Amino acid sequence: MISTPITESLVRGAAEYETTARGLRPHRLPAKVRTRFPDPQLLMVEAQPSGVRLVFTTTAQQLELVLHPTRVVYLGADRPRGHVDLMVDGELLHSDELTGGSYTEVNISTGASRQVDGESHVSVFPSLPAGDKLVEIWLPHNESVELVELRSDAPVEPASSDRPVWLHHGSSVSHGSNAATPSGIWPAVAARIGGVELTNLGLGGSALVDPFTAQVMRDTPADLISVKLGINMVNLDGMRLRTFVPAVHGFLDTLREGHPETPLVLISPIFCGIHEDTPGPGAFDPASFGTGQVKFLATGDPAGVAAGQLTLWVIREALASLVERRAEDPNLYYLDGLELYGAADAEEHPLPDALHPDSATHQLIGERFAKYAFAGEGPFGREL
Fold it and tell me: Could you report how far apart the first and last alpha carbons of the chain are, in Å?
């Protein structure tokens, strides 16, 4: 087997890379942001390489990727392990579940935690098709990884691409929460249908209209842009209506500094029954601990809407009005999140934890977004 050093030339979808004692760790936010605002939640999710993949051409028929995962385990509310997906010429051939790695074990009842270290993981992919092929190895969307070594039975070469780049920002739904595999998160599904290169800034719990996120997006090369805002503002109870609307205006103004005419879709929240009419904060439902399926609930009071507290309905109305007031921007579009997943869909595809869609629903959302955005007359279709 040939050992190929894993360098930036083989990786797509990350902002930058950290050299560690084991190898290369992809980051989706630059060091400047991580240094200025070292919020534990933000640092955890930006290091989870949602949408990041190794891309190369090869005649190899056997591949091995050595990586070291790092994750957080919540006692009584843990989630399934991440996967590494192998795609060849656009087709998913293998999905390998992670083992080993390091983790921080957190007792969500007491807050106590401990660190556990384990062995690195090896994803083994045998029996690839013969001949030249384009290989994409999608990294786990829900665990941080250090890329240690790529092995193959024939040389690999970095692949170039002339496809448009789609830059997307959103919450844990865009990050991929509850999706089983990294190539199955809804932005990956939509990007595959649309034939574009994905840069995913879905940041679980962290789509909070942060100025630094807008600045990162401003400075990131992109041909197509979308921003999905709302649910995190509600379940954090992070703003009132008076501050939310100007903050979104400022976020969009910053984006336009770097991308003045790029097609830009502003997406409001998908349906989420617990927060449709009830403000946050959101919280774990203690009654679900130890049941095998942790659930979330809203702890706010619907009467708080009169004082400016945010619910999903309030945010949808605010974002629709905001886009109307930016009529001077012909390349700004509004998409009601209920078009992607609405109340009727919740009857057929309920959110397992009352907050995040399952794998089938990620597929549904991705297909619907692609139909809206990448169709010939869609916001992105005109650019393809």
Answer: 40
Distance of CA 250 to the CA centre of its chain: 23
Q: Within 10 A of 284 (CB to CB), how many other CB atoms are there? A: 17
Residue 287: what pLDDT?
86
**3-class DSSP state of 193:** helix
CA distance 40 to 27: 14
For residue 55, what are the contacts with CB-CB under 8 A and spacing of at least 6?
A: 10, 11, 12, 134, 135, 136, 137, 158, 159, 161
CA distance 216 to 34: 12
Task: Lay out the sheet containing 264-267: strands in order across.
Answer: 197-202, 165-170, 224-228, 264-267, 332-335
Residue type, 144: S
| Calpha distance 351→345 (Å, rounded) | 10
109 token code pair: 């009842």
Per-residue pLDDT at 384:
76
- DSSP letter string over 202-260? E-TT--S--HHHHHHHHTS--SEEEEE-SHHHHHTT--BHHHHHHHHHHHHHHHHHH-S
Cβ-Cβ contacts under 8 Å for 157 (sequence gap 6 or more): 56, 57, 58
The model's pTM is 0.96
Along the chain (384 residues), what's the average pLDDT of each consecutive run of 10 residues? 95 97 97 96 97 98 98 79 97 97 85 90 97 98 97 97 97 97 98 97 98 98 98 96 98 98 98 98 86 90 97 98 98 98 97 96 98 94 80
Q: What pairing do the DSSP bridges indicate for beta strands 16-19 and 224-228?
A: unpaired
